[in-house]
């Protein structure tokens, strides 16, 4: 009967199928000798028949021993063929590849060993099968059997050497999808395998891996979260290499596509991923210039929360995010390229992100956002005007109510800039934007009296620094007079405004203006404030002292005898006495000894202060004022011959009689309100 395994002898077939390795090895050597002989005789038909028999009857057999024998024999065949292996490469490699996924550990081991020997002989001829070989290797490196892992590492190194040798013909387009498919795996061994391949190819001068980086960048960043420090270091080193190459030749990199990847990675909960992503963004901002502003909204989403990091572990992330923020600010501020840079900025998406971070964000983030909003209003106020209406509610309701003074002050800076931007467009200073803003602010104070008491001074003082103080005070007074404001809120607001007026250095010019009511503009402001200040008798008294209306002050003090003296009233008087000793009222103290106006002002002022002294209980304020008045000439012993034409009031056009009548009217309203409240409390 004809031998079905011809030209392989039956004895050789039996030995190849034996369970012992030594017998299989001897049989493989016999086949190697046969193939060598056929090669010398150039009998390729017989060689092809040997390969087919080994593949069909051994490697594809269900018998594990036959598989092992066949695998050894195929490797021996390749060794015998040498360079001629290329002619039979497909017939040799494919059966071996099938055994790499066998359930038997030993079969997989012999398959990897066999493949190594074939590849070692075939060299570049195996590259057409590279995807299949790479796929098999990626599984072997994660094999639970350590001997197989060790064998795969040897095969891996060999294959890398061959690829480097054939770098000019290596098909990168086929390789990258293989990497992309496997780069998201969680196995540390598989990750190490992928990183090593990318690193090797990236080191080859003829291969430009940066072109393909956008496809694998996301996966590389995910590898940074690997639990093994060694894998992390490998990935960090690879990312550093890529970034160095990009910095040398930015035009070779697809920065826009990679920026989108980085924005996502920069929001990772893993600090290492976050740090490297923001580091790359920082470099891209510097490399791309204004073009990076296309991604401003995404970058803001990534970096703004990082500005609030406080722990030492995240300090590097915070510093890097700060650097990105500053670089972006410079791009908008750069005078030379400003207009070009701004053309890349999608203001609508940027403002949407900034508004979101103004609410429920940590203080440093809010501060950064507010500075950005202010910067944009400064640089492109025309384009920003359409965003003012959406910003106003957030700035008023959220930012001004923030627990941080720094946030409140910065919010006022933005509000002031918005108002000023609107004012610049008009010829007349009296802009509705001012009034609308102050009405909203007053409504906010009205809704929350505690907010007014705790933050009112801070807010109004900052507004006066940034805007026209005279107009702010005039408008507040007009609103309080025209709007139906709760009397208690009105009196509290007046006390706040009055204390700011008397104590803030930034209002020096406004105080000087009120000193001279002979001036028509000053007189108009005084009358406006007086009618509003009438809600608080002591504030009215302070205003008149500031305006040097000493005769009227004396009349008001006399009226105090008919006004209900409450604890709040006495506290206000006490504060006013303290202020009389401050530098702001230096002119008042000098007026006590002045001979101007025929001593009229001095006498009226002296009598008014003595009247206040008589109202005070004998507290520290009483003794303070009493000591001051002891230094004043005794006007009481002089004849009461004060000419009404000698006083400051007589030299201006203010109708003090009408103001006095209005003051008494407002005080009656407050008295009625207190009476009604007491009656309600009785029931």
From TrEMBL:
<comment type="similarity">
    <text>Belongs to the VAC14 family.</text>
</comment>
<dbReference type="GO" id="GO:0070772">
    <property type="term" value="C:PAS complex"/>
</dbReference>
<dbReference type="InterPro" id="IPR021841">
    <property type="entry name" value="VAC14_Fig4p-bd"/>
</dbReference>
<comment type="subunit">
    <text>Forms pentamers. Component of the PI(3,5)P2 regulatory complex/PAS complex, at least composed of PIKFYVE, FIG4 and VAC14. VAC14 nucleates the assembly of the complex and serves as a scaffold by pentamerizing into a star-shaped structure, which can bind a single copy each of PIKFYVE and FIG4 and coordinates their activities. Interacts with NOS1.</text>
</comment>
<dbReference type="GO" id="GO:0010008">
    <property type="term" value="C:endosome membrane"/>
</dbReference>
<dbReference type="InterPro" id="IPR016024">
    <property type="entry name" value="ARM-type_fold"/>
</dbReference>
<comment type="function">
    <text>Scaffold protein component of the PI(3,5)P2 regulatory complex which regulates both the synthesis and turnover of phosphatidylinositol 3,5-bisphosphate (PtdIns(3,5)P2). Pentamerizes into a star-shaped structure and nucleates the assembly of the complex. The pentamer binds a single copy each of PIKFYVE and FIG4 and coordinates both PIKfyve kinase activity and FIG4 phosphatase activity, being required to maintain normal levels of phosphatidylinositol 3-phosphate (PtdIns(3)P) and phosphatidylinositol 5-phosphate (PtdIns(5)P).</text>
</comment>
<dbReference type="GO" id="GO:0006661">
    <property type="term" value="P:phosphatidylinositol biosynthetic process"/>
</dbReference>
<dbReference type="InterPro" id="IPR026825">
    <property type="entry name" value="Vac14"/>
</dbReference>
<keyword id="KW-0677">Repeat</keyword>
<feature type="domain" description="Vacuolar protein 14 C-terminal Fig4-binding">
    <location>
        <begin position="450"/>
        <end position="632"/>
    </location>
</feature>
<dbReference type="Pfam" id="PF11916">
    <property type="entry name" value="Vac14_Fig4_bd"/>
</dbReference>
<protein>
    <recommendedName>
        <fullName>Protein VAC14 homolog</fullName>
    </recommendedName>
</protein>
<dbReference type="Pfam" id="PF12755">
    <property type="entry name" value="Vac14_Fab1_bd"/>
</dbReference>
<keyword id="KW-0472">Membrane</keyword>
<dbReference type="InterPro" id="IPR011989">
    <property type="entry name" value="ARM-like"/>
</dbReference>
